[in-house]
Amino acid sequence: MAVPFRRTSKTKKRMRRTHQKLEVEGLVACKNCGATIKAHNICPECGYYDGKKVLETKKAKAKEEKPAEKPAKAKSK
Prior knowledge:
This is Large ribosomal subunit protein bL32. The chain has 77 residues and is of the alpha+beta class.
């Protein structure tokens, strides 16, 4: 059985393995809110697809249902 004459250095080993990595493909920025999403999918942040409102999100519902806040009273001396 063949045995290597010298040990493979960390650098040589890592240089050889540079192509063995995972790549995330198809990520784009949402045109409406700018969030990073997968291409050709509805944005989970704002619910838009191709510039049109398609999905009602929980965040949008929370903003609509939130009652109007009263302005703070000024202190009088």
